[in-house]
């Protein structure tokens, strides 16, 4: 088949597909418009149906509402006067379009029932025959004060309105119910026919089906069907009404759609004929010349087309350039084959070098892993050794502390006893440093907050301090640690200052005192350790720099060892500041 024939056939096929596509699009658009029309019809009809049903139900609820808060009704529940019931209840049933009325007293006993249904099969003697379920219904009605629901039995639908009875003075129904008033209306064929005339639809009442579609669109018959669900007193669906509404406006859309489709087909046929003729003159003949030139590899055939200012002129120039480049490409291909062979040889050599390099890297990596394992083992041994050393030092210091305690108990000289006890506390302060060290993973840093808490606990126990009379505050961050060379002097300083506060500051005072140990970061990049107590102040003639007491002298020596500065404040409370401590983080 020739190219021009293929082009013409392709054009016919394309145009046919275009017409079919247009028809499909138009059909879908028509279907979408039809669905929109039916959906709008469904929504409007459903809203109108809901309003109509609620409006017709209004007379039923109005009756129960009007007659339930009425002193005469309360009196009737008490007297059970049947004559009053006939004159006031039975006579108004046609006015409110009612079929049955029930009146129950406070205990739920039926005291009055009337119906205008002649067929005994259509009568309901009790609103809920099951006594247990009836009690549950009355309990619910007692809470809600009113109920509007439906009963569906033996293919009959009854609309029920139930309310509690109250005096006229209690329209809001806040007092306990004096009884219960229930009214019923049967959805008979005549009642349903009236609704069909009002809504302009066909209504079918059936048992509730959970699998049914809420809205069904029938495009073939231009109808839409929607449902309305009816609920019992337990809010359970028991029945549904199917409303079928016709929509004649769809016929107008179908006629308009058919006219647009025929106009499109005729216009496409005219366009196709014009394009076929134009294709032969402008495309088919020049294209054939180009094909023959390529088949015969003769660039001279396209010389007549090169002067044309069209795509075919450009193609003719490209074909001439193609034959010129062809010879150059053949030479380049031969050269590329040679280069590719050399490249493959180089790749083989590179792979061999990579394998050798990987082997060396693996060997060195393994050596590093072995060295790291040996270092870890050695480090673990050293940590264990350090822990053992600190543990033994701690034990030795505790032995010394125990010996001092035994010696202090045996001596009868008060001054010597005091010196031995103070020495015992100092030894214990150093022992706690080593105990804290061997409990740390690296045996190098003392956790200051934990150490201070242990030291205070020990000193409170030694001096039998009452914890409920001392407000202890330790304001030290848990992340702060001390090396051994700073931990021991810091511990001795704290031991002396806390001991001084417990022995002298809080002695003879019957009120709750405060002891605060705080470590703060100062602007000069160093820490400041402070010990404050609210007990008895230091004597005004006591000079911390020239004191002859061993405790304050020891504090001064330890501060100098830490290359810090000691300051004492005694205006309101006694506060010792040790400033200039190097970074502890």
TrEMBL record:
Reaction(s) catalysed by this chain, per the record, are:
ATP + protein L-histidine = ADP + protein N-phospho-L-histidine
Q: Which GO terms describe its molecular function?
A: ATP binding; protein histidine kinase activity
* SMART domains listed in its UniProt record: HATPase_c
Please indicate which superkingdom the organism of origin belongs to.
Answer: Bacteria
Enzyme Commission code(s) on record: 2.7.13.3
Q: Which residues form a coiled coil?
A: 336-374
- Which Pfam family, an example, fits this chain? HATPase_c
The record places domain Histidine kinase/HSP90-like ATPase at: 485-584
> Which keywords, in A-to-Z order, does the entry hold?
ATP-binding, Coiled coil, Kinase, Membrane, Nucleotide-binding, Phosphoprotein, Transferase, Transmembrane, Transmembrane helix
Annotated transmembrane regions:
261-283
InterPro entries xrefs: CHASE4, HATPase_C_sf, HATPase_dom, Sig_transdc_His_kin_sub2_dim/P
- Name of the top EC class for this enzyme: transferase
| The keyword Signal is annotated on this UniProt entry | no
What this protein is called in its record is histidine kinase
